[in-house]
Amino acid sequence: LAIVFLAALGSTLISATIGATTLVVSHAIAEARFLGAWSVWSAGDAMGILVVAPFLLTLRTIREHPIPRGWKVLEAIALGAVLVGISFLILVTDLPILFLLLPVLGWAAWRFQQPGAAPAALVVSLFATWAAVERQGLFAGLTLSEEMFTLQAFNATVALTSFFFAAIVGERLRARRALEEAAADLEERVDLRTTELSIVNERLAESQELSHLGSWDWDVATGVVNWSLEMYRIHGLPPDAPITFERVVDFAVPEDRARIQANVARAVEERREVIPDIEYRIVRDDGSMRTLYGKARAIPSTDGSVMRMVGTVQDVTERRELEREQRIADTLQRSLLPEQLPDLVGMSFAARYVPAEEGSAAGGDWYDVIELPDGGVALVIGDVAGHGTEAASVMGQVRMAVRAFSLEGHPARVVVGRVHDLLRSLYEGEQMVTMLYLVVDPTTWEATMVNAGHPASLLLDAAGGATYLASPIGLPLGLNWSLPYEESIALLRPGATLVLFTDGLIDRRDIAIEEGLERLRAVAMDSVGLDIDDLCGVLLVDLVPANASDDVAILAARLDPVQERLSLHIPADPAKLRSVRRNIARWLSGHDVSKQDADDIILASSEACANSIEHAYGPGEGSVDIEAEVDDGEITIVVRDTGRWRAARNGDRGRGLPLIETCMDSCVFTRGNEGTELRMTRRVPRLTSG
After folding, report:
1. Helix (H, G, I), strand (E, B), or coil: what is residue 103?
2. Is 548 helix (H, G, I), strand (E, B) or coil?
3. How far is CA 115 from the centre of its chain?
4. Fewest beta carbons within 10 Å, which of 78, 243, 597, 642?
5. What pairs with residue 669 in β-bridges?
6. Is 557 in contact with 566 (CB distance < 8 Å)?
7. Is the four-CA dihedral 562, 564, 565, 568 of positive or negative sign?
């Protein structure tokens, strides 16, 4: 306003001076009338600048202001009437009542802002100009210069007063609008934040429900307990159920309740912020039991005492059940696998079984080595579809069935066919098992194979070559079909190694099955010179990732070249005599001993071992050592024990030594304090040593 006032005053003075001077210089007026002309000129300019110009400018901004409606129109009409009346009254009367104009100007500015103040100032100025022309009221008896000065001062006062009121009101309205906009913006932000918080709370509730994780808060002083919705679900309560600390503790089984109370009491008494995690069980109102895992901490007050406790509770019932099921399945699976592989002459074995990563259910991978009645050795590996206790149970049934049918002396294809028929009858085609059944004849080194949907075995030769043994691949066992299984035969060589495996060794999500087979072949070729047990270890380390999702079983068999010396160590158990006979038969076969000579040597050796078991030890005691050697066409068998021989129980016994002497060329029987030794020899005409 100060700038406007100074600018208006300065421009008016300059304009009036230039105009009046121009009139005098041009002789339009006499010099004596200069002051009067100057006064009229300045008064006109001042009215134009202070009154008319603001009114015209207001007309340009009229659209920015709301048009009066309803009662506001009546108020505008009333204001106009009062303004005209007051203006006429104060300008035509001699009474000092100019102050009556101020409330009216304030009314116009307050209620209608600039659009009301500018016209009001213009109306008053028009009336003042009329009064000055007519020399009415306060203009009566004044000279022209006095009239112009008074008119100019009056118009300036009216205009500035109106504009001052309008500016104050406008500033107040702008402040109110800014406050309203800020409030609206704040409300919008609050609504947005509230919506975001609601979304976060909903997501938190969903996350807690998915993870079975609830949160709680306990005010120790007031006893108020606040639960999240998941806490109510975990405890099987409706969301409006009243909750107290005592009721929460009562959910726990008695043996766990004492631990919870002790943890809380210790935290309160010792002012501990850290509260030990605890796993405990609760019994719901419906009688169901749940296993929970709780975490909590204490929040101290300013004096250090425990003010609040907060924490979380997670329902881990399903997790513990899965872990329990996996432990049972893993224990069952491991219990059904061979505790140890047989110790056979001419063949050595190694195996590995690795369950899937922790958290996965146990699978149905298995393997077995079976000594057959005809002296052959069956290598078996298989994989039951699925995981868990059911797969482990089926695996046990299949393994026992394979062993039973094998020991009955059936051909390989018959064994596999009977296992298939058994599975189909038990599970009606709902269970599937892949299996590779491979029989090795240690006298001819022939391998007879039957493949029921399983990966082929890998054959490593002593020179470092590696090939997969090709054979017809039949459908997996247990499906509803009745096609016969086919056999295939491969000729093996001494020093070769057979590797049987389940698909967990080669099948990975990130590579194709063909690439997995090639990786196995490459690693095996690089490790062919290793001990057979080390070979299995290298295959696992190089091929099985730490986070494997499937079980892995490996069975390796190496065909050892025949040795000039044979050493056996057996427990004093008659059931082990069969193994002794088979091992000696394989050793003799490796030296090309005729069947007749081999039968006599095997009979004599078996009888010698039987005598040591029967006479030297009591039930379950001691062991027997058997050593065999070939030297210059002569076979020497030594049977040794460390017991003290007992006499025969009846007269029918004691015929073993004559039988041995009949079968062998010489027998030397030696007894001493350290045990008994029987040394037997026999020359064989068709012997090739080494």
Report:
1. helix
2. coil
3. 68
4. 78
5. 678
6. no
7. positive
Q: Where are the alpha helices (DSSP H) in 502-555?
A: 513-526, 532-543
> What is the model's pLDDT at position 404?
95
Please check whether residue 332 is in contact with residue 425, taking contact to mean a CB–CB distance below 8 angstroms.
no
Q: What is the pLDDT of residue 689?
A: 46
List % helix, strand, coil for the chain (3-state, nearest 5).
Answer: 50, 20, 30
Tokens for 459?
């054959």
Cα 291 to Cα 205, 253, 275: the distances in Å are 20, 10, 19
Residues 6+ apart with CB under 8 A from 446: 440, 489, 490, 491, 492
Q: Residue 660's Cα: distance from chain center in Å?
A: 71
Alpha-carbon distance values, 177 to 139, 170, 315 (Å)? 44, 10, 55
Contacting residues for 541 by C-beta, under 8 A, at least 6 apart? none
CA angle, residues 189, 190, 196, in degrees to nearest 5? 90
Token pair in block for residue 564: 């000039």
Spell out the domain ranges in the chain.
2-179, 212-315, 348-559, 565-683
What pTM was estimated for this model as a whole?
Answer: 0.55
Decide if pLDDT at 8 tops 70: no
Residue 233 host element (H or E): helix 229-235
| CATH placement of domain 565-683 | 3.30.565.10
Q: What is the pLDDT of residue 226?
A: 92
d(CA 544, CA 36): 115
| Residue 433 DSSP symbol | E
Residue 75 burial (CB count, 10 A): 15
Q: What local confidence, expressed as pLDDT, does residue 430 receive?
A: 87
Give which of 372, 383, 447 is closest to 415, Cα–Cα.
372
The fold adopted by the segment(s) 348-559 is Phosphatase 2c; domain 1 (3.60.40)
Residue range 615-639, pLDDT digits in tens: 888 766 788 999 999 888 899 999 9
Q: Give dist(CA 648, CA 588) in Å, integer.
A: 32
CA 613 and chain centroid, separation: 60
Q: How far apart are CA 484 and CA 474, in angstroms?
A: 8
Three-class SS of residue 567? Answer: strand
Question: At 33, is the pLDDT very low, low, confident or very high (cuts 50, 70, 90)?
Answer: low
CATH 3.30.470.20 fits 212-315, yes or no: no
553's enclosing H/E stretch is strand 552-559
H-assigned helices in 26-100 = 34-47, 53-60, 71-92
Taking the C-alpha atoms of residue 98 and residue 87, their distance in angstroms, rounded to an integer, is 9
pLDDT band at 450 (very low <50, low <70, confident <90, very high): very high
Decide: 567 and 354 in contact? Cβ < 8 Å: no
Q: Residue 136: what are its φ and ψ, rounded to 5°?
A: -100, 155
Report H helices in 93-228: 101-134, 144-211
Treating both helix axes as pointing N-terminal to C-terminal, what angle do 2-25 and 34-47 enclose, rounded to 10 degrees?
140
What does DSSP say about strands 446-452 and 473-474: parallel, antiparallel, or unpaired?
Answer: parallel
Structure tokens at 273: 């912020």
| CA-based R_g, the chain, Å | 57
Helix 71-92 × helix 101-134 angle, to 10° = 50
Lay out the sheet containing 466-468: strands in order across: 347-354, 552-559, 497-501, 458-460, 466-468
Q: What is the dihedral of CA 199, 205, 207, 213, to 10 degrees?
A: 160
The answer to whether the Cα torsion of 9, 15, 19, 22 is positive or negative is positive
On average, the pLDDT of the chain sits at: 82
Counts for the chain of helices (H) and strands (E), in that order: 17, 21
In tens, the pLDDT along 341-372 reads 888 878 899 999 887 755 445 567 889 999 99
